Amino acid sequence: MSINPRAQQLLKVLIERYIVDGQPVGSQTLADVADLSVSSATIRNILSELEGQGYIQSPHTSAGRLPTERGYRFFVDSLLTIQPLAEQEIFNIRQNFDPDKPTQMLVEAASEMLSRVTQLAAIVTLPTISQALLRQVEFLPLSDTRVLVILVFNEKEVENRIIHADRTYSASELQEAANYINRNYLGKGLDAIRADLFNSVTKEQQVFDLKLRTVQDLAGKAFEAGKQSAELLLSGYTHLLNTDESESIEQAKALLETLQHKKDMLHLLEGCIGAEGVQLFIGQESGHQMFGGCSIITAPYELDTDTVGVLGIIGPTRMAYEKVIPVVDITAKILGATLNSHD
After folding, report:
1. How does residue 207 score in pLDDT terms, banded at 50, 70 and 90?
2. pLDDT tens figures, 127-175
3. What's the pTM?
């Protein structure tokens, strides 16, 4: 349904007032601040039309109106003016990211900073190891068929894994396998290396180089461990309890339990990895009923032009969108730039 310019202005003022005060907005208040040069009766008629179209609603306890999820969506898409952050604000955000810190500490810094700046709950996914770019691998023999795998992703990221190989390998065989991978696959992701190794032998080949068979066995098991689901960091989710927007204590507890279990939030964020730029979910748009009454704002961050994670905030639908959206956007860009500086 279309909304005429006068109704749009009234809706904009109503939502902005409600975001600031958290109280239903009455027609007399709108008449005082909307600067429409129309009577209170005309304003009441416009409000009735907006309510009939589902953009606002009247709570039982007041004659005033407050926005619905549909009203917030129209406000964000059509009426909101995003102001870019000032240079000092960007500088302050950048100061939270030390390029000499490892990836996990940088992601933790992003989560904590977002929560502190917005006073909302922050959500950030860690890059999965399979998306990281290999810098070096070493295989060291342990007892029986066990092999210690040392993976280096840059100067600051080292991971040790123990795998069970198909057979017992000598130290020299393991060294040859590591040399082969280091010589041919540096700078590639684990998934890409593993796929290339398994595609390197055609079905028609009955016999192939024993060295390559060794590499395939070791890399297949060592790199498969990198295909875990993304991990999610949460910061400041108790901020969700500090809003008068929550319909009930039970709803707030259910939302906190969902965030602590992380499953539904991970599913939502993993769906944002392929999206470009800032994504905004208002209430039920997230696809999860427990997020009703909340808005989620996300932005992807990149490593070597590939999206490797998503960060964002979750808070009440009554939030200062014009302030939160640019903070989420610039934080994602700065986090990605800092991660790329590791190279």
Report:
1. very low
2. 766 566 788 899 999 988 889 988 887 656 777 888 888 889 899 889 9
3. 0.73
Beta bridge partner(s), residue 232: 125
CA distances from 197 to 41, 46, 176, 211, 268 (A): 74, 66, 15, 12, 32
Residues 241, 102 share a domain: yes
Do you know the residue count of the chain?
Answer: 343
Residues 128, 227 contacting (CB under 8 angstroms)? yes
Largest CA distance in the chain: 90
Q: Supply φ then ψ for residue 287, to 5 degrees.
A: 85, 5
pLDDT in tens, 307-343: 888 899 988 888 999 999 999 999 999 999 998 886 5
CA 213 to chain centre: 39
Q: What per-residue string of b and e applies to 221-254 under the rule 16 or more CB within 10 Å gives b?
A: bbbebbeeebebbbbbbebbeebebbeeeebbee
CB 285 within 8 A of CB 298: no
CATH number at residue 332: 3.30.450.40
As a whole number of angstroms, the distance between CA 247 and CA 97 comes to: 37
Range(s) of the domain holding residue 196: 131-224
**Residues 199 and 245 placed together within one structural domain of the fold:** no
